[in-house]
Amino acid sequence: MTNEQLKQEILRLKREKNAVILGHYYQRHEIQELSDYVGDSLALAQKAQQSDNDIIVFCGVHFMAETAKILNPSRKVLLPDMEASCSLAESCPADDFAAFKAQHPDHMVISYINCSADIKALSDLICTSGNAEKLVRSLPEDQKIIFAPDKNLGSYINQVTGRQMLLWDGVCMVHDAMQAEAILKLKAEHPDAPVVAHPECNAALLAVADFVGSTKAMLTYIERSTARQFIVATETGILFEMQRMNPDKQFITLRDDKSCACDDCSYMKLNTLEKLYRCLRDEQPEILMSAQMIEAARRPIVRMLDLSRQLGIIK
Ligand code: 13P
Ligand code: SF4
After folding, report:
1. How far apart are alpha carbons 280 and 288 in whole angstroms?
2. Which residue CA neighbors atom 6 of ligand 1 most closely?
3. Is residue 102 domain-shared with residue 166, that is, in the same domain?
4. How far is it, in rounded angstroms, from Cα 183 to Cα 141?
5. From 101's CA, which of 37, 120, 177, 259 has a CA 20 to 30 Å away?
6. How many other C-beta atoms are found inside a 10 Å radius of the C-beta of residue 171?
7. Within 10 Å of residue 52's Cβ, how many Cβ atoms?
8. SS3 of 191, please?
9. CA of 234 to the centre of ligand 2 (A)
10. What is the CB < 6 Å shell around ligand 2?
11. Residue 47 Cα to chain centre, angstroms
12. 79 and 94 share a domain?
Protein backbone atom coordinates (compact mmCIF):
# COMPACT_ATOMS: atom_id res chain seq x y z
CA MET A 1 0.00 0.00 0.00
CA THR A 2 1.16 3.55 -0.61
CA ASN A 3 1.41 5.96 2.30
CA GLU A 4 -1.77 7.66 1.10
CA GLN A 5 -3.66 4.34 1.06
CA LEU A 6 -2.31 3.50 4.53
CA LYS A 7 -3.55 6.85 5.84
CA GLN A 8 -7.04 6.30 4.37
CA GLU A 9 -7.21 2.79 5.86
CA ILE A 10 -6.07 4.02 9.27
CA LEU A 11 -8.77 6.71 9.27
CA ARG A 12 -11.42 4.19 8.18
CA LEU A 13 -10.46 1.62 10.85
CA LYS A 14 -10.30 4.34 13.49
CA ARG A 15 -13.89 5.40 12.70
CA GLU A 16 -15.25 1.84 12.43
CA LYS A 17 -13.65 0.71 15.69
CA ASN A 18 -14.29 3.90 17.67
CA ALA A 19 -10.56 4.28 18.32
CA VAL A 20 -8.58 7.35 19.31
CA ILE A 21 -4.95 7.90 18.32
CA LEU A 22 -2.75 9.64 20.90
CA GLY A 23 0.63 10.77 19.57
CA HIS A 24 3.71 12.17 21.28
CA TYR A 25 5.59 15.16 19.81
CA TYR A 26 8.57 12.91 19.05
CA GLN A 27 6.64 10.66 16.67
CA ARG A 28 7.26 10.67 12.92
CA HIS A 29 5.45 13.62 11.33
CA GLU A 30 3.07 11.40 9.34
CA ILE A 31 1.92 9.82 12.62
CA GLN A 32 1.50 13.20 14.32
CA GLU A 33 -0.66 14.28 11.37
CA LEU A 34 -2.99 11.30 11.87
CA SER A 35 -3.20 11.60 15.66
CA ASP A 36 -6.36 12.94 17.29
CA TYR A 37 -4.25 14.52 20.02
CA VAL A 38 -0.54 15.29 19.99
CA GLY A 39 1.04 16.29 23.28
CA ASP A 40 3.61 15.86 26.02
CA SER A 41 3.51 13.01 28.53
CA LEU A 42 1.33 14.94 30.97
CA ALA A 43 -1.33 16.00 28.44
CA LEU A 44 -1.43 12.53 26.87
CA ALA A 45 -1.88 10.85 30.26
CA GLN A 46 -4.84 13.16 30.89
CA LYS A 47 -6.33 12.46 27.45
CA ALA A 48 -5.98 8.72 28.05
CA GLN A 49 -7.71 9.02 31.42
CA GLN A 50 -10.62 10.97 29.89
CA SER A 51 -11.06 8.87 26.75
CA ASP A 52 -14.41 7.14 26.19
CA ASN A 53 -13.25 5.42 22.99
CA ASP A 54 -13.25 1.62 22.87
CA ILE A 55 -9.63 1.55 21.69
CA ILE A 56 -6.72 3.84 22.55
CA VAL A 57 -3.81 3.54 20.10
CA PHE A 58 -0.79 5.06 21.78
CA CYS A 59 1.80 6.31 19.33
CA GLY A 60 4.66 6.84 21.72
CA VAL A 61 6.76 4.49 23.82
CA HIS A 62 5.83 1.59 26.08
CA PHE A 63 5.67 3.44 29.43
CA MET A 64 3.24 5.94 27.89
CA ALA A 65 0.88 3.24 26.61
CA GLU A 66 1.18 1.44 29.96
CA THR A 67 0.22 4.66 31.75
CA ALA A 68 -2.84 4.96 29.48
CA LYS A 69 -3.90 1.41 30.42
CA ILE A 70 -3.36 2.10 34.13
CA LEU A 71 -5.49 5.25 33.97
CA ASN A 72 -8.26 3.75 31.82
CA PRO A 73 -8.12 -0.03 32.33
CA SER A 74 -11.47 -0.87 30.73
CA ARG A 75 -10.21 0.33 27.30
CA LYS A 76 -8.18 -1.72 24.89
CA VAL A 77 -4.77 0.02 24.70
CA LEU A 78 -2.57 -0.70 21.68
CA LEU A 79 1.05 0.22 20.96
CA PRO A 80 2.11 -0.18 17.29
CA ASP A 81 5.52 -1.62 18.26
CA MET A 82 6.00 -3.36 21.62
CA GLU A 83 9.79 -2.87 21.29
CA ALA A 84 9.33 0.90 21.69
CA SER A 85 11.01 1.14 25.06
CA CYS A 86 12.89 4.03 26.73
CA SER A 87 16.46 4.05 28.06
CA LEU A 88 15.24 5.68 31.29
CA ALA A 89 12.75 2.89 31.96
CA GLU A 90 15.45 0.32 31.11
CA SER A 91 17.92 1.93 33.51
CA CYS A 92 15.82 1.18 36.56
CA PRO A 93 15.18 -2.53 37.24
CA ALA A 94 12.50 -3.03 39.91
CA ASP A 95 14.53 -5.36 42.16
CA ASP A 96 17.52 -3.01 42.33
CA PHE A 97 15.27 -0.03 42.90
CA ALA A 98 13.33 -1.80 45.68
CA ALA A 99 16.67 -2.53 47.42
CA PHE A 100 17.75 1.12 47.07
CA LYS A 101 14.42 2.30 48.46
CA ALA A 102 14.71 -0.10 51.42
CA GLN A 103 18.02 1.57 52.36
CA HIS A 104 16.21 4.91 52.76
CA PRO A 105 12.97 4.17 54.62
CA ASP A 106 12.49 7.82 55.68
CA HIS A 107 12.43 9.08 52.06
CA MET A 108 9.38 9.45 49.86
CA VAL A 109 9.80 8.26 46.26
CA ILE A 110 9.06 10.52 43.32
CA SER A 111 9.42 8.83 39.95
CA TYR A 112 9.52 10.45 36.55
CA ILE A 113 6.75 9.01 34.39
CA ASN A 114 9.46 7.54 32.09
CA CYS A 115 9.64 4.32 34.12
CA SER A 116 7.97 0.90 34.17
CA ALA A 117 4.72 0.12 36.00
CA ASP A 118 6.78 -1.84 38.58
CA ILE A 119 8.70 1.32 39.47
CA LYS A 120 5.48 3.34 39.58
CA ALA A 121 4.08 0.77 42.01
CA LEU A 122 7.10 1.40 44.27
CA SER A 123 6.58 5.20 44.13
CA ASP A 124 4.61 7.68 46.21
CA LEU A 125 4.24 10.28 43.48
CA ILE A 126 4.82 10.39 39.71
CA CYS A 127 5.90 13.52 37.84
CA THR A 128 6.52 14.54 34.26
CA SER A 129 8.93 17.14 32.92
CA GLY A 130 5.89 19.44 32.68
CA ASN A 131 5.12 19.43 36.41
CA ALA A 132 8.21 18.12 38.25
CA GLU A 133 9.45 21.46 39.57
CA LYS A 134 6.07 22.62 40.89
CA LEU A 135 5.24 19.25 42.44
CA VAL A 136 8.57 19.13 44.29
CA ARG A 137 8.19 22.75 45.45
CA SER A 138 4.73 21.93 46.86
CA LEU A 139 6.22 19.39 49.31
CA PRO A 140 7.42 20.40 52.80
CA GLU A 141 11.02 21.74 52.77
CA ASP A 142 12.25 19.02 55.11
CA GLN A 143 10.67 16.14 53.15
CA LYS A 144 13.39 13.66 52.21
CA ILE A 145 13.01 12.50 48.62
CA ILE A 146 14.35 9.78 46.33
CA PHE A 147 14.04 10.84 42.69
CA ALA A 148 14.16 8.20 39.92
CA PRO A 149 15.13 7.29 37.28
CA ASP A 150 16.46 10.43 35.51
CA LYS A 151 19.53 11.91 37.25
CA ASN A 152 19.63 14.84 34.80
CA LEU A 153 16.05 15.93 35.45
CA GLY A 154 16.57 15.24 39.17
CA SER A 155 19.73 17.33 39.43
CA TYR A 156 18.06 20.14 37.45
CA ILE A 157 15.14 20.14 39.93
CA ASN A 158 17.61 20.06 42.84
CA GLN A 159 19.38 23.07 41.34
CA VAL A 160 16.27 25.22 40.77
CA THR A 161 14.53 24.30 44.04
CA GLY A 162 17.59 24.06 46.33
CA ARG A 163 16.54 20.53 47.38
CA GLN A 164 18.91 17.64 47.87
CA MET A 165 16.90 14.76 46.46
CA LEU A 166 18.71 11.44 46.25
CA LEU A 167 19.05 10.58 42.57
CA TRP A 168 18.84 7.25 40.77
CA ASP A 169 21.60 6.96 38.15
CA GLY A 170 19.57 6.78 34.93
CA VAL A 171 19.69 8.91 31.78
CA CYS A 172 17.87 9.38 28.50
CA MET A 173 20.37 8.11 25.93
CA VAL A 174 19.25 10.76 23.44
CA HIS A 175 19.33 13.92 25.57
CA ASP A 176 22.33 12.91 27.66
CA ALA A 177 24.46 12.53 24.51
CA MET A 178 23.89 16.14 23.42
CA GLN A 179 27.00 18.18 24.13
CA ALA A 180 27.25 21.73 25.49
CA GLU A 181 30.29 22.41 23.27
CA ALA A 182 28.25 21.76 20.13
CA ILE A 183 25.51 24.09 21.39
CA LEU A 184 28.09 26.80 22.18
CA LYS A 185 29.43 26.53 18.64
CA LEU A 186 25.94 26.98 17.23
CA LYS A 187 25.36 29.88 19.63
CA ALA A 188 28.51 31.61 18.34
CA GLU A 189 27.20 31.28 14.78
CA HIS A 190 23.67 32.43 15.73
CA PRO A 191 24.12 34.86 18.64
CA ASP A 192 20.49 36.05 18.61
CA ALA A 193 19.00 32.56 18.79
CA PRO A 194 17.87 31.47 22.28
CA VAL A 195 18.73 27.88 23.22
CA VAL A 196 15.74 25.79 24.29
CA ALA A 197 16.47 22.45 25.98
CA HIS A 198 14.62 19.52 27.52
CA PRO A 199 15.54 18.89 31.20
CA GLU A 200 16.68 15.36 30.32
CA CYS A 201 19.82 16.98 28.82
CA ASN A 202 23.02 16.84 30.89
CA ALA A 203 23.83 19.60 33.41
CA ALA A 204 26.59 21.17 31.23
CA LEU A 205 24.16 21.62 28.36
CA LEU A 206 21.35 22.94 30.59
CA ALA A 207 23.80 25.51 31.98
CA VAL A 208 24.07 27.14 28.53
CA ALA A 209 20.33 27.00 27.74
CA ASP A 210 18.11 30.09 27.78
CA PHE A 211 14.98 28.07 28.42
CA VAL A 212 14.53 24.60 29.94
CA GLY A 213 11.17 22.84 29.80
CA SER A 214 9.01 19.93 28.68
CA THR A 215 8.16 19.45 25.01
CA LYS A 216 4.95 21.45 25.49
CA ALA A 217 6.72 24.19 27.51
CA MET A 218 9.36 24.61 24.78
CA LEU A 219 6.62 25.00 22.17
CA THR A 220 4.85 27.64 24.27
CA TYR A 221 8.12 29.53 24.91
CA ILE A 222 8.94 29.63 21.19
CA GLU A 223 5.41 30.69 20.22
CA ARG A 224 5.53 33.63 22.64
CA SER A 225 9.11 34.69 21.89
CA THR A 226 9.90 37.56 19.52
CA ALA A 227 13.15 35.86 18.43
CA ARG A 228 13.23 34.59 14.83
CA GLN A 229 15.73 31.73 15.27
CA PHE A 230 16.08 29.09 18.00
CA ILE A 231 18.67 26.47 18.83
CA VAL A 232 16.77 23.34 19.82
CA ALA A 233 18.26 20.70 22.14
CA THR A 234 15.74 17.88 22.10
CA GLU A 235 14.47 15.05 19.93
CA THR A 236 13.91 15.94 16.28
CA GLY A 237 10.27 14.83 16.08
CA ILE A 238 9.22 18.05 17.80
CA LEU A 239 10.45 20.14 14.85
CA PHE A 240 7.29 19.19 12.96
CA GLU A 241 5.01 20.91 15.51
CA MET A 242 7.50 23.78 16.08
CA GLN A 243 7.52 24.59 12.37
CA ARG A 244 3.76 24.10 12.03
CA MET A 245 3.06 26.54 14.89
CA ASN A 246 5.74 29.02 13.78
CA PRO A 247 6.06 28.99 9.98
CA ASP A 248 8.16 32.18 9.99
CA LYS A 249 10.69 31.05 12.61
CA GLN A 250 13.84 29.03 12.00
CA PHE A 251 15.06 26.09 14.06
CA ILE A 252 18.69 25.10 14.37
CA THR A 253 19.57 21.67 15.75
CA LEU A 254 22.70 19.71 16.57
CA ARG A 255 22.53 18.30 13.03
CA ASP A 256 23.46 21.76 11.79
CA ASP A 257 26.71 21.44 13.75
CA LYS A 258 27.34 18.17 11.89
CA SER A 259 28.99 16.80 15.06
CA CYS A 260 26.02 14.72 16.07
CA ALA A 261 23.12 12.85 14.54
CA CYS A 262 22.21 11.72 18.04
CA ASP A 263 18.98 13.65 18.41
CA ASP A 264 16.61 10.95 17.13
CA CYS A 265 15.04 8.57 19.65
CA SER A 266 15.27 5.16 17.99
CA TYR A 267 12.46 3.90 20.25
CA MET A 268 10.06 6.69 19.33
CA LYS A 269 10.79 6.18 15.65
CA LEU A 270 9.89 2.46 15.76
CA ASN A 271 6.24 3.36 15.19
CA THR A 272 5.51 3.69 11.47
CA LEU A 273 2.36 4.18 9.36
CA GLU A 274 2.49 0.51 8.33
CA LYS A 275 2.67 -0.67 11.97
CA LEU A 276 -0.09 1.75 13.00
CA TYR A 277 -2.31 0.35 10.25
CA ARG A 278 -1.63 -3.30 11.22
CA CYS A 279 -2.14 -2.52 14.89
CA LEU A 280 -5.59 -1.01 14.24
CA ARG A 281 -6.52 -3.84 11.86
CA ASP A 282 -5.42 -6.71 14.16
CA GLU A 283 -6.04 -4.93 17.48
CA GLN A 284 -2.60 -5.85 18.69
CA PRO A 285 0.04 -5.55 20.13
CA GLU A 286 -2.12 -4.87 23.18
CA ILE A 287 -0.95 -3.65 26.61
CA LEU A 288 -2.02 -6.30 29.12
CA MET A 289 -1.47 -5.93 32.86
CA SER A 290 -2.72 -7.64 36.00
CA ALA A 291 -5.45 -5.86 37.97
CA GLN A 292 -3.09 -5.88 40.94
CA MET A 293 -0.32 -4.07 39.05
CA ILE A 294 -2.79 -1.56 37.62
CA GLU A 295 -4.06 -0.75 41.11
CA ALA A 296 -0.57 -0.40 42.61
CA ALA A 297 0.79 1.78 39.79
CA ARG A 298 -2.37 3.91 39.59
CA ARG A 299 -2.17 5.52 43.05
CA PRO A 300 0.94 7.69 42.46
CA ILE A 301 -0.20 8.68 38.95
CA VAL A 302 -3.63 9.76 40.16
CA ARG A 303 -1.92 11.63 43.00
CA MET A 304 0.18 13.47 40.38
CA LEU A 305 -2.89 14.41 38.32
CA ASP A 306 -4.86 15.55 41.42
CA LEU A 307 -1.93 17.61 42.72
CA SER A 308 -1.32 19.10 39.26
CA ARG A 309 -4.95 20.23 39.17
CA GLN A 310 -4.75 21.71 42.69
CA LEU A 311 -1.59 23.61 41.72
CA GLY A 312 -3.22 24.93 38.54
CA ILE A 313 -0.76 23.12 36.21
CA ILE A 314 -3.59 21.32 34.39
CA LYS A 315 -7.36 21.81 34.25
P1 13P B 1 7.71 15.27 27.63
O2 13P B 1 6.87 14.84 28.77
O3 13P B 1 8.38 16.59 27.85
O4 13P B 1 6.89 15.26 26.36
O5 13P B 1 8.94 14.25 27.46
C6 13P B 1 8.80 12.90 27.22
C7 13P B 1 10.06 12.28 26.82
O8 13P B 1 10.18 11.09 26.64
C9 13P B 1 11.20 13.14 26.66
O10 13P B 1 12.28 12.41 26.20
FE1 SF4 C 1 13.08 7.70 26.56
FE2 SF4 C 1 14.83 9.52 25.81
FE3 SF4 C 1 13.40 8.31 23.97
FE4 SF4 C 1 12.24 10.09 25.64
S5 SF4 C 1 13.78 10.51 24.08
S6 SF4 C 1 11.43 8.08 25.07
S7 SF4 C 1 13.39 9.69 27.51
S8 SF4 C 1 14.90 7.34 25.33
Report:
1. 16
2. 41
3. yes
4. 35
5. 177
6. 19
7. 9
8. coil
9. 10
10. 61, 86-88, 114, 172-175, 200, 235, 265, 267-268
11. 14
12. no
- Domain-located, residue 232: yes
- 41-50 and 62-71 are packed helices; what angle lies between their axes, rounded to 10 degrees? 40
Q: Count Cβ neighbours within 10 Å for each residue of 259-293 and write b for 16 or more, e otherwise.
A: eeebbebebbbbbbbebbbbbbeebebebeeeeeb
Q: Is residue 219 part of a domain?
A: yes
Domain assignment of residue 145, given as a range = 88-171+297-310
Distance CA 108, CA 103 (A): 12
* 191-241: pLDDT as tens digits: 999 999 999 999 999 999 999 999 999 999 999 999 999 999 999 999 999
Indicate left, alpha or beta for 258 from its phi (over 0: left) and psi (-120 to 50: alpha).
Answer: left
Residue 66 belongs to a domain = yes
The per-residue pLDDT for range 34-77, each reduced to its tens digit, is 999 999 999 999 999 999 999 999 999 999 999 999 999 999 99
Is residue 289, in this structure, part of any structural domain at all?
A: no
Q: Whose CA is nearest to atom 2 of ligand 2?
A: 172
- Residue 61 sits in a domain whose CATH number is 3.40.50.10800
Output the residue whose Cα is nearest ligand 2's atom 6: 86
Distance 41 CA to ligand 1 centre (A): 6
